Amino acid sequence: MDFQHRAGGKTGGGGVASEAESNVDRRERLRLLALETIDLNKDPYFMRNHLGTYECKLCLTLHNNEGSYLAHTQGKRHQSNLARRAAKDAQDAPAQPALDKPRVDLKRFVKIGRPGYKVTKQRDPGSGQHSLLFQVDYPEIADSVLPLHRFMSAYEQRLEAPDRSWQYILFAAEPYETIAFKVPSREVDKSEGKCWTHWNRDTKQFFFQFSFKML
Length: 215
Description:
α1 (about 20-35) crosses α2. The relative contact order is 0.11. Strands 4, 5, 9, 10 and 11 form a 5-stranded antiparallel sheet that branches. A 3-stranded antiparallel sheet has the order 1-2-3. The chain has a 3-stranded antiparallel sheet with strand order 6-7-8, with no helix packed on it. Helix content is about 20%, strand content about 30%. The protein has about 220 residues and is of the alpha+beta class.
C-alpha cells in the first residue's frame, strides 16, 4: 500500500498511514495468509447457503466470498466466540473414563437401479396455485427401510453449473439409486394440506406433494 505524499511523511519514506488504512492493510494480509493455510472444508462453522453467499454459523454473519469469510475468522469477534464455545464445551463435557463402544456393522446394499416414478403437474382451479405430485415405486425396497426425500439447492450439486432459478428434489431408498428432479426455485407453501408425504407399505409406493406459494 503506497502512503507516499501523505501529511507527516517524508518523500521516499513510504508516508504515514492512517489507523483505518493500517487496519485495512492488516486484514488483507491476514486474509491472504488464511487462504494459504486454512482448509474451509474442515471448518465446522463455514456454510454456503442457497444464494451462493457464505455464512459463519458461529457468529451468524454473511459474506460475499471465501476471502471475506476468512478475514472474518481472523477477527476479534470470531476469535472471542471460538473461545466462548470452547469454554462452554469443556464445561458441558466433564472428564469421563473412556468406554468401549459396541461395534455396529453397517448395512451394505447392492444397488439395483433406479425406481419407477410418475410426476403430475397440478393447478388449483380456485386459487390458481401450482403443485407437483411425485409417485416413486419401490417394489424391492429393503426391509425396515423407509423412503427419504429432501430439497437441494443448485449450489449443492456438482453435475451442472449452478443456476439460482432452479432447485432439486431427491428421493432415496435402499437398494435403489437416488433420483433427483429439477424444479423451479420458488418458495414452497408449507401450510397444512399443501405439503405432505405418504408411504403405502402394501403397494410399496411413496407419494410426495407440495405447492408453490402464489407469486
